[in-house]
Structures
1.
Amino acid sequence: MTPHPAQFNELIRLAIQEDLATGYDLSSLVLPHDQISKFGIFSRQNGILAGVFLIPHILSMVDPKLNYEILIKDGQNLKHGNLIASISGPLASVLLVERTCLNFLSHLSGVASLTAQFVAQVENTKTRIVDTRKTLPGFRALQKYAVRVGGGFNHRFGLHDMVLIKDNHWLYIGSLKKAVEEIRSMLGHAVKIEVEADSLDQFREALEARVDAVLLDNMSLNDIRTAVSENAGTVILEASGGITLENVRDYALAGVDIISIGKITHSAPALDFGLDEI
């Protein structure tokens, strides 16, 4: 589902304010106020489009006189030179919104495009590619949307909607099993509980604690295959850590249900777009 663009009003305002701290676009002071122009947003790389749904909202927040036409929707494949959208209206306003529009498009399309590459690598396996909480502050909902556009799935949105017990939690409680028991007694059965394990011993302890999912963190492929065999479908198995485009299929073929990859949000290369007069 596409988020409602009004959800990102504050983020868009901040982006515009970064350009207009003094209240003026100094470079456009020489332009005639009545100059009306039409520009197009063009892709300069192949990839997956994400974020175009924000453009009408950005334009309306800057100048209601700006008009637009969206020609390619989020989720569609892009080729170099594709016309994504047209923007027409006062020239100074078009140039004012240019970088804000392109920044959102470039980043979110980069996330969607990198996600799609990982998804393609695990094709014809049962494994899903999911994101993490390794997101830019303020951009989490947008980045997780872009992951979905690229064919991936979302892990927990934040600390509030799912339990993920890591060693930094259970080491202070005394044991992994005890941490699970205490959390379960506090929250009841309705909240899913996942435990991070970095060894087969920890994985086995998590199974004994009857958790809902186990994150196999930075474990070797051989250990992951052993965990999959011993699990026999009992809980959801997630693999993470050191997984790249080159080896992700090996992890999928090992039999895990989920592969979580921080790179698709925190290190996705921006996709290149440009604004040119048409």
Note: The chain has two domains: 5-117+269-277, 120-266.
2.
Amino acid sequence: MKQPAISLIVATLNRTDELFDLFESLAVQTCQDFEVIVVDQNTDDRILPYLETAFAMGISITHLRNHPANLSVARNIGLKAATADLIGFPDDDCWYEPDLLEQVVKRFSAADAPEGVGVRWEEGDAPAINAYQLTWTRSKVFRDIPVASITLFLQMKLFDRIGDFDARLGVGLWFGAAEETDLVLRALQAGALLAYEPSARVHHPVGPPVGGSQGLVAARQRARGTGALWAKHDLPKWVILRGLIAPLLSPLLQGSLGTELAHGYAEVRGRLEGFLGWRRMQS
């Protein structure tokens, strides 16, 4: 059986109709040289009809399971099953423009031979972003890291050099974010060339921020991931200080002494917890 050009690893939990939208966008790709590895983190069979529909559309599907749910672990399971040289990580609620995979394959074949390609997130990227080449020098001070996992395509051989996703970081965990940023930082430290291809576009809805106490808890949990990155990558002290001051200073300067200040305090608290928690874990 011919090896596909791209393996797409989809970790899914509690979604159904959104999966159909993703599969529908994959079925009309101008490049059909791909496989989809679905890592199912549900405790029931809710997605089976959608997998059957994808198969009927002509999509090559591999169905795996992971319990308990852990996004980084699920993606690592998918990596072990992947057979292609290029790897992508679509969310279970995103969808691709019809020529996205074609543009990605073309960019990897360019003369500069990148080991990673970031594509444009239509709803999330700033309009001014046209091109970039990420560097460790700027990324370690938290400049120029405009990548989310849905926008990231990497060569499989890069994972052989830097390892898989860190299963201690990610959605739902105590260190509740930053697994893809950690991966990018490790790639840059290893000297990988990561480039941006604005003509390749992915869609992902941007929902309204969660309000109330639930939103503050979520912000604090996500912020622990940022703090963990500070400690894990031994980032400069001034970067850490800036990261602790900015969430409070911005609402104070704007006179936003209510919800925004409370959100900033939750972020600062979470970042400090993540930084100290990671250091304790390593001691």
Note: The chain has ten helices and eight strands.
